[in-house]
Design a protein that fits this description.
By secondary structure, this protein is of the alpha/beta class. It has 15 helices and 14 strands. The strands form two sheets. An eight-stranded mixed β-sheet has the order 3-4-2-1-5-6-7-8, with helices on both faces. It has a six-stranded parallel β-sheet with strand order 11-10-9-12-13-14, sandwiched between helices.
Length: 432
């Protein structure tokens, strides 16, 4: 926000908000807290969850909840299910017997047809609510966070009605050119995706992406709007010191991955084959290691893990926890693991947390131009593993050598001064 005395009325459109957690929520809740401390009035338009108020109103912060983030969230609310998604320590990790069949039906009858994305149940109610908010609260600035692209369409709807309001599109994940990261059925909607995102670019005053490559791709597609696009990198959000200790065999080296997996974008398949190869050919090396996975793991990915029954003794799954607990657990690891993306235009938001914890990193990459590796560079010890089944023997030795060497290194907080809330929030200023 601008460093001015005048107080602004800010509206944030985001598909989920606290108590849920994901990279977008962690980033934007930190920015919202910063705005509130600066005295600005903030309104948040988000989706509803069972058990949460449709309107929460405070001195400077008002939250409106309407529509649903996904069809599954709609089901949980309407059928009064006690389960929750994306809420730390309240998310069920068990897969129901019928779930694979339900997911298959959803693929056929829902995911193959919806537009613009799985959050379409937020679109209609969100459009109606944003007009009411803009009419009643004299909004100065609108920030929309995508994915989902649904949020940007809600923002465009308000911009058409109130053209004098400043609109900033924050693109955490690209939409129209996303192939690996599925947003909708591209066979049907490819042209529409490009057309609608171009229309949003025409309306918005400012557009942000998290890395240069994402911006370059948009510049190529929409060169007439290149001057609007800026790169605003990942944010290191403030955190509280908490006790998140867990049973830890002191005789082993502990390696931890903190994040999610996504079909076609970030998967554990090749790494699991690599660990299996280690078990078959140098079991004594594997016996010294233990792998921890923290974060929401979808049913499809968990079925991949379950195929490697002989490896389960080396794995611990901690589920979705708060960011405070995540950082506490990171600090207890000897080595961190990152799974790189298949794309060259996504940068994992956890990269700054990894840099701060400053533990050695094994980066299981799928590309020679991996964005995570380029961002980290030589700021912490890193081993980039572009796994190839024909080279597992050599790669296994490099992996073991790195892990053993890293186990003797002492870590200290890394420099994340360019990623603090104050620095990042300033880059979203309405007057830039």
């Amino acid at each position: 926000m601008p460093n001015k005395i005048n107080i602004l009325n800010v509206l944030l459109v985001i598909s989920q908000y606290k108590p849920a957690t994901n990279p977008n929520i962690i980033r934007w809740s930190a920015i919202v807290d910063h705005w509130l401390k600066s005295g600005h009035h903030v309104t948040i338009l988000t989706t509803q969850n069972r058990g949460e108020l449709e309107i929460e109103s405070g001195a400077l912060l008002t939250i409106y909840r309407t529509g649903y983030n996904t069809l599954y969230d709609f089901y949980l609310a309407k059928w009064r299910q006690s389960r929750h998604r994306d809420i730390p320590n309240r998310t069920s990790g068990k897969e129901g017997f019928w779930n694979p069949y339900i997911q298959k039906l959803a693929d056929i009858f829902w995911r193959s047809l919806y537009w613009p994305d799985g959050s379409v149940l937020f679109l209609g109610p969100g459009k109606k609510m944003i007009i009411k908010i803009c009419r009643d609260q004299d909004i100065d600035c609108i920030y929309t966070v995508g994915l989902p692209f649904t949020c940007h369409l809600i923002g465009k709807h308000a911009k058409a009605r109130y053209p004098d309001i400043f609109w900033h599109m924050d693109i955490e994940d690209p939409f129209c050119y996303s192939k690996e990261f599925r947003v909708n059925n591209r066979m049907i909607y490819k042209k529409r995706n490009f057309h609608e995102e171009r229309r949003c670019f025409e309306r918005a005053e400012a557009i942000s992406v998290t890395n240069a490559r994402a911006g370059e791709k948009y510049n190529d597609l929409f060169p007439e709007h290149a001057e609007k696009i800026r790169v605003i990198p990942p944010l290191f959000a403030p955190y509280n010191l908490v006790d998140a200790t867990f049973d830890k065999d002191a005789s082993r080296i502990h390696l931890g991955y903190f994040g999610s997996f996504y079909t076609n974008v970030r998967t554990p398949d090749m790494f699991l084959a690599f660990v299996e190869h280690m078990q078959l050919h140098r079991r004594e090396d594997l016996e010294m290691l233990h792998f921890h996975f923290t974060g929401a793991i979808d049913d499809k990915t968990m079925r991949v893990f379950k195929r490697y029954k002989a490896l389960q003794q080396y794995f611990s799954f901690h589920g979705l926890v708060t960011r405070d607990e995540t950082l506490a657990m990171m600090k207890q690891m000897d080595v961190l693991i990152n799974f790189g993306n298949a794309t060259d235009y996504h940068l994992p938001s956890k990269v700054v947390d990894y840099m701060y914890v400053s533990k050695p990193i094994v980066n299981v990459t799928r590309r020679t131009d991996d964005t995570f590796a380029q961002f980290v560079k030589d700021r912490v010890p890193i081993l980039n593993l572009l796994l190839n089944a024909d080279q597992f023997d050599q790669q296994r030795q490099a992996f073991i050598d790195f892990v053993h060497k890293s186990n003797s290194l002492k870590s200290h907080p890394g420099d994340v001064s360019h990623h603090t809330v104050e620095v990042i929030a300033a880059q979203y200023a309405c007057d830039q």
